[in-house]
TrEMBL record:
Gene designation: srp54
Top EC category: hydrolase
Native source organism of the sequence: Halorubrum cibi
Reaction(s) catalysed (UniProt annotation): GTP + H2O = GDP + phosphate + H(+)
Compartments it resides in: Cytoplasm
Protein's UniProt name: Signal recognition particle 54 kDa protein
Part of the whole protein covered: 1 to 290 of 465
Keyword set includes Nucleotide-binding: yes
């Protein structure tokens, strides 16, 4: 089955349907409650959870299981389809020359993700470069340079520069030989006007093919405002969820995906450059329901 790693309590309520060919309202209600519990504890936005459980409930009661399908498998299929609909496919990332702009708050994992993504593109046979424009956070240049070295990818930054837009311009010229340029930007502790103004200017300068929002998996409800602001200022094409090796299940990122009308591009799960994978819906859904 597509989802073999469901949460224990959801699995046991589905198991009570074993052998049944028809569902009654109580069965469906119990399953929907379990799904709600799992998703809310994974920090998925309440209104999204309600929307999802309404669709599951309606479909489970109205649709007839195809001949030979047990009630359990029928519900499981509906749950899976509705979850895929919510989570979406991964952000399209053609393996071709392109410029990617990274946005996000300080500490979300942008610099780490820039090097990880560059490493990922290098495993696909492309030549990536990281351009570091963060002149705000002390140590950002050294960290980015070291990580690019570990990823064995080209790097451009200016440890003495104080104009991120100029660094971006110079970086685009200096990395002319690269196929994929990943532009790291400065974050702040909170969304401040100067951060937004700065990233808008960088966006105009580098004219990215796509802009990705980097979010810590533990972001929770805070994801909504952030996502909306970045979406309004530069347009967000996809989300990178970091620190999934921690305890958070990443439900907040779904709020961001919903808010920006985008999708998830990558998942980060550690501090080394190889700790990255392309988003794939079913593993992430299992995690949310776990
Ligand atoms: P930035 O301020 O957005 O550039 O964030 P950084 O890339 O500097 O990351 C902030 C901290 O989170 C650093 O200590 C990173 O090592 C750590 N970090 C980033 N991504 C991950 C991840 O996927 N897992 C873990 N455990 N730590 C991460």
């Amino acid at each position: 089955m597509v989802l073999d790693d469901l949460g224990t309590s959801l699995r046991s309520s589905l198991d009570t349907l074993q052998g049944k060919t028809r569902l009654d309202e109580d069965d469906v209600e119990e399953i929907v409650k379990e799904i709600q519990r799992s998703l809310l504890s994974a920090d998925v936005d309440v209104s999204l959870v309600m929307e999802l459980s309404d669709s599951i409930e309606t479909r489970a009661l109205e649709e007839e299981p195809p001949g030979g399908t047990t009630a359990r498998d029928h519900v499981l299929k509906i749950v899976y389809e509705e979850m895929v609909e919510l989570v979406g496919d991964s952000t399209a990332l053609p393996l071709e020359p392109q410029t990617i702009l990274l946005a996000g708050l300080q500490g979300s994992g942008k610099t780490t993700s820039a090097a990880k993504m560059a490493w990922w593109f290098s495993t696909k046979g492309l030549r990536p470069a990281v351009i570091q424009t963060d002149t705000f956070r002390p140590g950002a240049y050294d960290q980015a340079e070291q990580m690019a070295e570990r990823a064995e990818v080209d790097f451009y930054g200016d440890p003495d520069g104080d104009d991120p837009v100029e660094i971006a311009r110079e970086g685009m010229e200096a990395t002319a030989d690269a196929d994929v340029r990943i532009v790291d930007t400065a974050g702040r502790h909170a969304l401040e006007d100067d951060l937004i103004a700065e990233i808008e200017e960088i966006e105009r300068e580098v004219d990215p093919d796509r802009s990705l929002l980097v979010l810590d998996a533990a972001i929770g409800q805070g994801a909504k405002d952030q996502a909306r602001q970045f979406e309004e200022s530069i347009g967000i094409d996809g989300v990178v969820i970091t620190k999934l090796d921690g305890t958070a299940k990443g439900g907040g990122a779904l709020t961001a995906v919903n808010e920006t009308g985008s999708s998830i591009a990558f998942l980060g799960s550690g501090e080394t450059v190889q700790d990255i994978e392309r988003f794939e819906p079913s593993g992430f859904i299992s995690r949310l329901l776990g």
